[in-house]
Write a structure and sequence with these properties.
The protein contains twelve helices and no strands. By secondary structure, the protein is mostly helical. It has one domain. Helix 3 packs across helix 7. The chain is globular, with a radius of gyration of 20 Å.
């Protein structure tokens, strides 16, 4: 067991770094060396008691924010198919910006303003950042045809599906650096330059890998995206559903980081090989299944703080939380393609729309509500 004393942390699903006082930029101090999610007993007794006392009411109240945002992103932009084609890539490109604000900047610059303006401020920054990065993705994939980003058509090729694997791989790398690598070594910098550097590094790595293996057709883009999404599902399992277990209890930093990275990548690779070469699933189905798992883990363990599993002791509680997310994943993987058909999404794009609903729309809505908006207007601990 680690000799570190677990510091008090906010309730499950909030940012791993402490939030600075309102009105104070977080650029004045380095980021903590070890995020709370990677410490033993990531929930303090006070936070655990608060979650037990206020769930599931707090989670149900959050659905009033999460469901409309999910529907808006999934189908409101000219129908389900058009929302997939236009909003899907932009939302995916915006995810690293949201991760930077939530997990590196501790919600700065929104902390300069009181709620709800802080949430609006940060959300506007996420939208603007996502649009800028989507334009950059368009330059990489299709050249300088900016019309294709917001109004794709036969004369203006868009980001979907060409850039989806690029955007998804960059976000997976951002989560790997943030959660699995515990923000090291960039966490030694002050939060603002550290977050910007993290996005830049993940973009450089993701773009290089994509240009080497996808651009020359060495690997199909759909298979490339499926592999990265499979890794993302294991990131969510270990660092959100299981709150860093079992790696959090390894005291030696180098060993904890080595094992964490090795196990996540190996499990992601094994999951991809199993589904692609044993079950013979196509890349879009693998991506949809792993993306749905990611959304379900966030829904169960972040929005509802793993209720009712948090009422159990840690071992059975973790098991129950994982089983709940797994059961919800099976249900939605069966249901959402049928809903896509009902919404006139062509059969070949049904799996892609499922991915968009769960990985882009729902996951974005949950993280925005819990981490960026701090569950506003529901009262939560400071």
């Amino acid at each position: 067991m680690s000799s570190e004393q677990p510091a008090p942390t906010p309730p499950a699903g909030t940012t791993p770094s402490s939030r600075p006082p309102a009105g104070r930029p977080s650029s004045g101090r380095p980021s903590p060396g070890r995020p709370s999610v990677s410490r033993p007993d990531a929930l303090s007794p006070a936070a655990l008691a608060d979650a037990r006392r206020h769930q599931p009411v707090r989670g149900l109240a959050g659905l009033a924010f999460v469901v409309p945002v999910t529907v808006l992103l999934s189908a409101a932009a000219g129908g389900a198919l058009h929302s997939l084609v236009v909003l899907g890539p932009i939302t995916t490109f915006a995810l690293p910006i949201m991760a930077m604000i939530a997990f590196w900047w501790a919600d700065w610059p929104g902390t300069l303003l009181p709620r709800p303006w802080s949430g609006l401020y940060d959300t506007a920054l996420v939208v603007a950042g996502g649009a800028v990065l989507a334009v950059l993705g368009q330059l990489v994939v299709n050249g300088s045809d900016l019309v294709g980003v917001f109004a794709p058509g036969p004369a203006h090729p868009g980001l979907d599906p060409a850039a989806n694997s690029l955007a998804g791989s960059i976000f997976t790398l951002m989560l790997q650096l943030t959660l699995v690598c515990e923000r090291r070594p960039l966490g030694r910098l002050r939060p603002i330059p550290a977050g910007l550097a993290a996005v830049g590094v993940c973009w450089a790595l993701g773009l290089t890998a994509w240009a080497v293996v996808v651009r020359p057709d060495a690997i199909e883009s759909e298979d490339y995206g499926a592999w990265f999404t499979s890794i993302g599902a294991w990131q969510m399992l270990f660092w959100v559903a299981l709150r860093g277990w079992p790696f959090a209890r390894i005291d030696r930093t180098w060993l904890r980081l080595l094992l964490g990275n090795a196990v996540v990548v190996a499990c992601g690779w094994a999951g991809y090989l199993l589904t692609a070469h044993v079950l013979d699933w196509p890349g879009p189905r693998i991506t949809a299944t792993a993306g749905t798992a990611i959304g379900c883990v966030l829904l169960v363990s972040m929005l509802f703080e793993a209720w009712p599993a948090i009422r159990w002791t840690p071992g059975p509680g973790r098991t129950l939380a994982v089983l709940m997310a797994l059961a919800l994943t099976v249900l939605l993987v069966w249901l959402l393609p049928k809903l896509a058909h009902a919404l006139a999404v062509p059969q070949p794009r049904a799996w892609s729309w499922t991915t968009h609903v769960m990985l882009n729309a729902l996951s974005t809505a949950v993280i925005l509500h819990v981490v960026v908006w701090k569950r506003w207007p529901v009262r939560t601990p400071a």
